[in-house]
Amino acid sequence: MRILQINKYLKIVGGAETYMFQLSKALQDLGHEVKFWGMQDPDNLVCDFPELEAENIDFSKQSISKKLGSVLNTIYSKSNRKKIGQVLDTYQPDIVHIHNYNFQLTPSILPEIKKRGIKIVQTVHDSQMVCPYHRIYNFQRDEVCTKCVTGSFANCIKDRCFDGSLLKSTVGALESYFYHSFNYYEKYIDAYIAPSPFLASLLTHRINKKIEILPNFTEVDYDSSKAIELKEYYLYYGRISEEKGIIEMIDVFKETDLHLVLIGKGDNEQKVEGKIKNLENIEFLGPKYGRELFNYVKNAKYVVQISKGYENCPMTVIESFALSVPVIASNHSGFKDLIQNKITGFLVDFTNKNEVIKELEKINTFDISFFQKNINDFYNKNLAKKKHLEKLMKLYNALLNKQ
What we know:
- The structure is a single chain.
- The protein has 17 helices and 14 strands.
- Helix 10 packs across helix 15.
- The protein has helices spanning 15-29, 64-75, 78-91, 110-114, 147-150, 154-158, 166-181, 184-187, 197-203, 246-253, 269-275, 290-298, 315-322, 333-338, 353-363, 368-382, 385-399; strands spanning 2-6, 33-37, 95-98, 119-123, 137-138, 143-144, 191-194, 211-213, 233-239, 259-265, 282-284, 302-305, 327-330, 345-348.
- 41% of the residues are buried.
- Helix 1 (15-29) links the parallel strand 1 (2-6) and strand 2.
């Protein structure tokens, strides 16, 4: 089978790219041919169509006049539609598997794929189709926001969801209005995949098609030659930003004797460093990647994720489970789809600081080996690569009438 993977970024930016590249490697190992199309970038990990990649759009580096010229291309790109047509005629894939493409690539590419009779599968990695800003979070108010999920996309403009910018927020809202009004997501996508029931439930407010639930899988690179040495530290790793609840996490842990390790990077790094300056039980190590990161994960007593914002299918939980590490997480959104409370980890309401401190003191007394067995059973049944590929190939073959 010839499969074309489409994503705006062809380098690792987040969980979507990690999943896409790991999935593609797994498909290649099964004997399928996989190629990629997305934006130009010197850091791209693949370059299958060097003359036909989409222009790299970066608003922050553009002049005012250039920004205005880019607005229309952000909503609908004639250039990208032409380029994808040439890519399809050159490669002639059986399946196009789309990931993140709004704004930089734009849904303008969809009719070009469809008119060639090629089946389109989309793995939906975020809530962009129901929230123009795609995070379901308003940073100006520092709170979850679902106004656009069932209401008007004009809320994005009213609340200036895109970095407080009227221009960016207007472009985001217009993009959503345009493609939903012209029914692009119904007409052109043959099959939708959501990594979690939580995300699927959001999408059903705007998408009137069956949505397959298929949790992401991952393969972690760690030093398997060394035995796991369970350390007495709790670990947060991921983006260091406001909606992740890291400041609130620090405020909780500083009232305990528990050791907290923070790993990651983001726009809240200086604030975090200031908060822990005189705290002996909390340390911030900055970003870590690959084997170095996962060596920290596999030795942690617990991984902690107390995000204030909604999470769809958090890769940190899947990665932790792949290493048999229980997770303490917020009792909402995609966390509830992955974590079985008091069986594979803990779901906690982090809004009451004093109650959370008491809860952590109880959690610290649990026997970790109990969780490890449960995690292994859950992972092998629901999140293993083999299971994922079986379900995905069944979907591919159904679209191609091969079963």
